[in-house]
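Hi V.,

You were right to ask for the full record rather than a summary. Here it is.
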Amino acid sequence: MRELFKPDRILSNILPEQKLKQGADYVLSQFVLPYETGGRVLLCNVLTHRIIELNEAAGEGYGMRFTGSEVGDSELLTTLVKWYFLVPEGKDECAFYEGISRMMRAYTRPKGVNSYVIMPTLGCNARCVYCYEEGMEQTSMTPETVEQTARFILETNSNKTIRINWFGGEPLAGEPAIDRICGILRGAGASYRSSMISNGSLITAETVRKMKDLWNVRDIQISMDGAEQDYCARKNYTFGGSCYRRVMNSVSAMSEAGIRVVIRCNVDADNWTGIPQFLDDLKGEVGHKDNVAVYFSPLNAIRASVDDVTMWSRIVAARPMVEAAGFKPADYLGFGSRFRISHCIADAGSAVVAPDGSLYLCEHCVPESRYGDVFRGVTDKAAMDAFARTDFTREKCRKCPFLPDCTSFSACPVEDFHCREVKEMLAKDMLKLLDEKSYNIGAPMGEARSAGLGECGAEDSHGSGFGDSLKDRFENAPGDGFDNGPEDGFGARAGSLC
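Predicted structure:
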């Protein structure tokens, strides 16, 4: 047996080795993912994040039922029990996970607000055919709300460095609000950094300068929609023209300026045939590729349909095309070296600030989930607590091997049609890359996570952008909702919040 990756360090300090239970028979844990290759077996424990390799002899019969005496007579089986790869038959592993999760959250979760998603406007110069904000009133922050938002951030931030993600609408349609908020933070001597979700159409050389000098943008996700004809039809810009190549040139300029860029290409069956041309155009137009990753994300309508597995299989198979174009492809499973203490910004201490100053836990939430505003703070703590309850797991999720690495709270508005099947496919792809020595869990930023692989995010949300995905960054680290650890690369996760 060979240990490829050690378990989460904090979890190891809290969770003792599993002891042999008198009279119990043992079976493979529901949280263990096996991958057979070349006579060997890789076992990935999604609960502890430990990965081991068994050789041909040791791997034979790993999925069998073992008696307590068989375990006691085998050093290998005893170790597999200690490390939670084998568990007593009949164990309620969902309840065990929920207990560990509560313990980890109590031990590590920061108090207060640790990141902000700010929507300076719901206005947008595109009319994307799939936009979930369609029909919403396109309001923008008033000068009073802008000033109070900055004060709210200064008064409530619990991190040494303020973390902001600019979202919309199209956030650059509210550029003066971004200027003013950052100006107030800088004037107050606050340390801050930010990221952004944008369609990229309004980015100019002056915008890139401000991203670096005033807004302190470290990461940006640019949404695109395939080849130029599909892009223009789906973006449906109000000015009626195409900025397809201009956006690509802006990507190159941002990359050259040291800003990490993730291009999110939203896909379905209708635009997939144009993906080779899209990648070829990117290759030609983006001259500076060092800080650029590309990933594909099925539209929400596809994720919620019977066609989701087919689309995801195409996406996984497209990795060589992305690499051939000179870009970092995505690690869609997003499996890292840490136990996921939080699963989305909604349960991780982030505040979403709407253009009218209202406070939400998630920008996908209905108006009824509003829990306060930047003027009065929290006015409905019951609504705030109810949305992100983590003590109730959906019935269909209780036996799922991916439960420890997936959304655990029942109020999440997103459900994938074949979520388990999709994750199993992505897990096999991840373990295959690991076996090929091209997936480096825990690699620091600047080293390729999977031969340059990063992770990436989702259709229209802060929760899925980049850099261990904004989703991961806002959620996963104690006391730090951004750049929170060794997985700080480009990020995205199947089944992420949009």
